[in-house]
Write a structure and sequence with these properties.
- The structure is a single chain.
- With about 110 residues, the chain is mainly α.
- It has a domain of about 55 residues.
- Helices cover about 60% and strands about 0% of the residues.
- It has three helices and no strands.
- The longest helix is centred in the middle third of the chain and has 34 residues.
């Protein structure tokens, strides 16, 4: 079931279950995960305001901490990946499709 929260077009679960259009870059996937984190934060805020219960506030603080930690790890991984690409002399924004392997036709 698809539910909308405060102007969101779709929930993170619905974007995860949708098949990708094709190959994606690491950077694009990290961006997608960071957007999903933003959606999770907005949903936590929505339920905090909606319910206003002390237990909900306590649980939502835990959820917010986990989402923030995950977002920090994503940003760290992204910085490390871009640094590794620059160190090797590569483009930190690789093409979206892998090159086809060469096949000997002898």
């Amino acid at each position: 079931m698809l539910r909308k929260f405060r102007g969101e077009d779709e929930t993170p679960a619905s974007t995860e279950s949708r098949p990708e259009a094709g190959p994606t870059t690491v950077e694009a996937r990290l961006d997608n995960l960071m957007q999903e984190n933003g959606n999770l934060k907005r949903q936590v805020n929505y339920f905090e305001v909606l319910l206003g219960d002390e237990d909900i506030f306590r649980l939502s603080k835990g959820l917010r901490a986990v989402v923030s930690e995950f977002n920090g790890r994503l940003e760290s991984s992204n910085r490390q990946w871009m640094g590794d690409e620059r160190h090797r002399g590569g483009d930190p924004r690789p093409p979206t499709c892998a090159a086809a392997p060469k096949v000997d036709r002898e």
